[in-house]
Amino acid sequence: MRRFGRTSLLEACGGLLATRQRAVLALIGIVVGVASVSSMISVGKIVKDEAARQFQELGTDVLAIAVRARDKRRGRARLELSVAERIDSLPGLAAAAPFTRGAAHVTIGGASRELAEIVGATGEFAVLNRLPLAEGRFISRLDRGQYFCTLGAGIAEKLRKAAGAVVGESLRIGDTACTVVGALAPATTQQRAFDANRIVAMPIGTAALVIPNKTLRDIVARMSPGTGYREATKQIEDYFRFRAPDMRVRVRSPEQLIEQLHRQMRLYTLLLGTVGAISLLVGGIGVMNVMLVAVAERKGEIGLRRAVGARRADIQAQFLVESTILSLAGGAIGAGLSFAATWGICRFAGWAFAVSAEGAVLGTAVAAGAGVFFGFYPAWQAARLNPVAALRG
Amino acid sequence: MTVSGPPLFELEDVHQSYGSGPVVLNVLEGVDLQVCRGDFAAIMGPSGSGKSTLMNIIGLLDRPARGRYLLKGVETASLDDGETAALRNEAIGFVFQSFHLLPRLTAWQNVGLPLVYRGLGRAEIRRRATGLLETVGLGDRAAHRPHELSGGQRQRVAIARALVGEPEILLADEPTGALDTDTGQEIMNLLFRMNEEQGTTAIVITHDHGVAAQCPRRIQIRNGRLQERDPPPNGGGAGL
Ligand SMILES: Nc1ncnc2c1ncn2[C@@H]1O[C@H](COP(=O)(O)OP(=O)(O)OP(=O)(O)O)[C@@H](O)[C@H]1O
Ligand SMILES: [Mg+2]
User: Fold this and answer.
1) Angle at which helices B81-91 and A312-349 pack, to 10 degrees?
2) Which of A387, A107, A269, A190 is nearest to B57 (CA)?
3) What is the pLDDT of residue B12?
4) What pTM was computed for the model?
5) Chain B interface, best mutation among A2, A3, A308, by max B CB count within 10 A
6) Do residue A247 and residue A264 come from a single domain?
7) Which chain B residue's Cα is nearest to A8?
8) Residue, of A248 and A350, whose pLDDT is higher
9) Separation CA A170–CA A178 (nearest Å)
């Protein structure tokens, strides 16, 4: 700590305040750069968490199969329930649950109308979609033909508010009253084909009466252990090629979703990384400029310090401390801003925002690094000044 | 006030020149000088004669192109940057014509600057700096910044800074040059007092014959060489 006491730190701050305006300009670059880098790191971490969470919630082995008419004008091509149900005979699939769906308004407690997604489902539906129950039970094979339903957590909550209970209460879909037999636990991922919190699940037969023009188009299936999704996808496509030649099949797996998630993240990383690198470069050159001007303006000071006993290394350290403080000030603001930026990105991309210290810490470290890196040349210039020439001004 | 004994510092055949090739300017051409502890010498000479050049060499701010400079018996040419800086810090105190105070620092912080490079703590620096400010009669100005002080006061702050590290040699380059006659005399009196009370060796560059006349040793610089005027009674060493 010899020759590096508090005095020199205080003086460093004083020296910076003296060149305030230029310093502010240089700071903006550092602020933006550090904000970008911090956000980049935070987003990366959030996406990693998000992927892990989705894997956990959706399962790694579940496929969403969408079957659509290939040519809308030819109209009447449709998927038969019997064809859909028997898809689980494929070696790559362990279980399958076809379902229909369609939006409808439901009336809760006689007054409040909610837009819900009516799902015509079989008993397998909840298991395959990994939708745990909060209370009651899911509709089953035995409910066939009955106006029974199991509610998504959001709709169930509305009903509880209106009627005081869920199971045993009823709600109306159009003119049809429907008895509630169970409610699902809240789902957090938005990556299913439907919004699990807003579903009203009914037996396929009764759902067809409530949402009459919605045909069977969707199947959720679980792969057999050891089957990759590419292999399963191939089998599914082959299966429909013969049984429903007019239909186009799309298979989505969580793996694919997460690949997509990572593609999206890579885009943000590229964007933030580029913006960050450019801003840091601009800010760093700004810092260098501020410091070069400071060295030129304070030649007399440098000479005087040398005259009273400063070594070259002391002068070098003094200016390095100053440039680092300058960058760190920008870095602190940038790290703060990165929280806002990350929040914005998460909102836009539909990810759960989480504050991560890593981004801020790394961003601040980057700022300190930039301060040392871009401050090095000016500090070296200051240190190698001839003291006599420096004193002359 | 000259105390006999081995010289505090010694210049031997010192040369210094500026520029290169055909436009080379030989400023010092064989300077010999011996200064003993307690000496008080005035250096005089026309403008451009090399007074400041000489003082920068004595103060270890610059190195002679040729010749030897021994400070406290040490051959200074062999010292590295750290050793030179330490020697400047401990053995030498500078006073400049234009004061060279740092405008952002208060009087006591300016005075304490040499001690910062000695690695002392803030409280200790403050204590010693305020003590020195009292010695130069500015005890009540410790917290003022240079722009709040008069020229004479600034130079006294600068002298306090030069003395705070208890150096053996005080080097003053026209310390009264920017001051009126009365204020200049006060500054000179302060230097004489330090020389008498603390035995600080002082080398003062001046254009003012009145000032020079008060100094026990007077050295004239002419054509790149030194010439002792009215050698002091005890015959302290002096080159031609
Ligand atoms: N860095 C330099 N480069 C070139 N010439 C220099 C340099 N420093 C000093 N000189 C020249 O050396 C000569 C002596 O300069 P110096 O500053 O020692 O004079 P001085 O006796 O102190 O004069 P003054 O009384 O005006 O202060 C001058 O002619 C000056 O122009
Ligand atoms: Mg001069």
Assistant:
1) 110
2) A387
3) 96
4) 0.75
5) A308
6) no
7) B116
8) A248
9) 5
Query: A82 and A148 share a domain?
Result: yes
From first CA to last CA, the distance across chain A in angstroms is 30
**What sign results for the dihedral spanned by CA atoms A186, A190, A192, A195?**
positive
* Cα–Cα distance, A113 to A105 (Å, whole number): 6
- Taking the CA atoms of A19, A24, A25 and A30 in sequence, report the sign of the dihedral they define: positive
Residue-wise pLDDT for A346-390, tens only, equals 888 878 888 878 888 988 999 999 999 999 999 999 999 999 999
* Residue at which a domain ends, from A252, A279, A310: A252
CA angle, A322 then A323 then A328, to 5°: 100
SS3 B142: coil
In three-state form (DSSP H/G/I as H, E/B as E, the rest C), the secondary structure along A131-181 is CCEEEECCCCHHHCCCCEEEECHHHHHHHHHHHCCCCCCEEEECCEEEEEE
Contact between A92 and A231 under an 8 Å Cβ cutoff? The reply is yes
Q: Output the six-digit token pair for A107.
A: 């009336």
Q: Which of residues 55-84 of B touch A (CB under 8 A)?
A: 56, 59, 61-62, 81-82
Same domain? A108 vs A71: yes
pLDDT exceeding 90 applies to what percent of chain A? 31
Of A300, A309, A387, the CB nearest to B89: A309
A386 neighbourhood in chain B, CB within 8 Å: 62
Which residues are paired to A199 by β-bridges? A117
A145 touches chain B (CB under 8 A): no
- Residues of chain A with Cβ-Cβ distance to B116 below 8 Å are 3, 5, 7-8
Question: Which of A252, A267, A302 is the last residue before a domain boundary?
Answer: A252
Kind and range of the H or E run holding A106: strand A93-108
A226 and A310 in a single domain? The answer is: no
C-alpha B15/C-alpha A387 separation (Å) is 19
The sign one gets for the Cα dihedral A280, A285, A291, A297 is negative
A182: domain range?
A: 61-252
Count of other CB atoms within 10 angstroms of residue B10: 18
Please name the amino acid found at residue A330.
G
B165 contacts in chain A (CB < 8 Å): 308-309
On whether both A97 and A51 belong to a single domain, the answer is: no
Q: What is the pLDDT of residues B195-208, one digit of tens each?
A: 999 999 999 999 99
How many contacts does A have with B, using Cβ atoms within 8 A? 80
Closest ligand to Cα B26:
1
Q: Which of B102, B112, B125 sits opposite A301 (nearest CB)?
A: B102
How many domains are contained in chain A? 2
Nearest CA-CA distance, residue A291 and chain B, Å:
17
For residue range A206-226, what is the model confidence (pLDDT) as tens digits?
888 888 777 888 899 988 888
Same domain, A207 and A328: no
- Report the amino acid identity of residue A361: V
- Residue A374, burial from CB neighbour count under 10 angstroms (0-12, 13-18, 19+): buried
Ligand 1 atom closest to residue B207's alpha carbon, by position in its atom list? 25
Please give the ipTM for the structure prediction. Answer: 0.92
Q: Are residues A246 and A105 in the same domain?
A: yes
DSSP string, A58-102: H-SSEEEEEEEES-GGG------HHHHHGGGGSTTEEEEEEEEEE
Residues A218 and A117 in one domain: yes
Spatial separation of the C-alpha atoms in residues B190 and B161, rounded to whole Å: 13
